[in-house]
Amino acid sequence: NPLGQLAACFVLDVPDSLEGIYDTLKQSALIFQSGGGVGYSFSSLRAAGSIIESTHKSASGPLSFIEVFVFSCEAIKQGGIRRGANMGVLRIDHPDIFSFITEKTHGRLQNFNVSVAATDAFMHAVVHNTNYALRDHKGRKVREVNAREVFDFLCANAWESGDPGMLFVDEINRKHPLRKLGKIEASNPCGEQLLLPNESCVLGSINLKHMVHEKYIDWPKLAKTVRIGVRFLDNVVSVNIYPTKDIEKICLAHRKIGLGIMGWADMLITLGIPYSSEKALRLAKELMVFIRKHAEETSERLAQEKGAFPAFKKSSLRKRRRNATVLTVAPTGSISLIAGCSSSIEPLFGVSY
Q1: pLDDT digit string (tens) for 222-271?
Q2: Residue 54 CB: number of other CB atoms within 10 A?
Q3: CB-count burial class (<10 Å; 0-12, 13-18, 19+) for 95
Q4: 240: closest CA among 249, 248, 231?
Q5: pLDDT tens digits for 288-325?
Q6: Which positions are catalytic?
Q7: Could you tell me which residues come within 8 angstroms of residue 326 by beta carbon, excluding any fewer than 6 positions away?
């Protein structure tokens, strides 16, 4: 369409200031208008009841500002392209974590998915049934609570409403190739894309249904499709018209792409392999090792042809690549319907609807 905005996944920063919050709100509105969805971490916002030094009044807390983002999203309705999607993230050690966990159970935040950023320290405390500290916006300990009780509370609400999810932020940042440039604190609305503030990523998925020939996987065809997919998505990064200059600058510096798969259940059916079998797990590993190998090799060849992504020297990658990331397994909710195949790596749980 005339907007030329080709990315769906974005993450924006939400700083602990009124000006910063509303700057982010404006950026999110521009992203919704162009058809994208946004993830935010609200962890830097001070807890409800905290004293604001400039006014000596009580802060309203992150949940009140999340509601502002909900109403903004509802008003824009994503430019008529589709309804806006959001991901709200709050750290497990934020003092308002209990209210955050119950928001979706109470029927609020209809345009939001929500996830708790769980730390190594919290999960260690869950395993050992010990306490952990809730901390204010300056890192000072507010009080201690029992980790296992909080975890059970989180799980009960997730069972009730489907939210919150969990982002294991310490593990995410250990694996992040651009960790020298900052910490990842949030994901896109569906949770598959972990991004730094002002980053976006373009996604595409290979239909595995078409990678089978007479009861066998056509490995040469799959390799060729991976190579085409990586080159295609890298070109999308170049021709994309970004919603803001800040996003454009970072996206062109990192050139993140996310090549994924769909039709996994269809492939297994064609091959006569039960979804829940050990054979299916072994094939899944073999398949993704193969796809990863060819995707990374293609990005390395693109670096030789066109140059590595500009931030390469600040990354933890050993070999020069065109793209900071190359793979993502997305849920493929819309594109699998268009392609007429099973979604992502899911089984057939709804044969017709």
Answers
A1: 999 999 999 999 999 999 999 999 999 999 999 999 999 999 999 999 99
A2: 7
A3: buried
A4: 248
A5: 999 999 999 999 999 999 999 999 999 999 999 999 99
A6: 188, 190, 192
A7: 230, 257, 258, 259, 292, 295, 296, 298, 299
